[in-house]
Amino acid sequence: xxxxxxxxxxxxxxxxxxxxxxxxxxxxxxxxxxxxxxxxxxxxxxxxxxxxxxxxxxxxxxxxxxxxxxxxxxxxxxxxxxxxxxxxxxxxxxxxxxxxxxxxxxxxxxxxxxxxxxxxxxxx
Length: 124
Description:
By secondary structure, this protein is an alpha/beta fold. Helices cover 35% and strands 21% of the residues. Helix 4 (79-89) links the parallel strand 5 (69-73) and strand 6.
């Protein structure tokens, strides 16, 4: 197996807003990788975000087409989303993490924040 020196690159919420058309069209994936407790406590998510548990990111990444994009976020845009981004990048997928995480998205893009579905389950 080839080892890559991979570093996660952040995007701002302004950059994310520009990508919403691609996300809405299914051409890019917005991925909520918050840990389970943080996810449940918030009661909210971002419209069109896929829920992937941090421990399952590698398995999910293997299911992606190489020409897709993934934008990940956790609560604050620190370790969880950066680790997820590096994991997805290591599978050859264009990936960025949202600087400031869910909190920044909620502040900058309140029109995209929705209640979680009561029966929402992580997709993988």
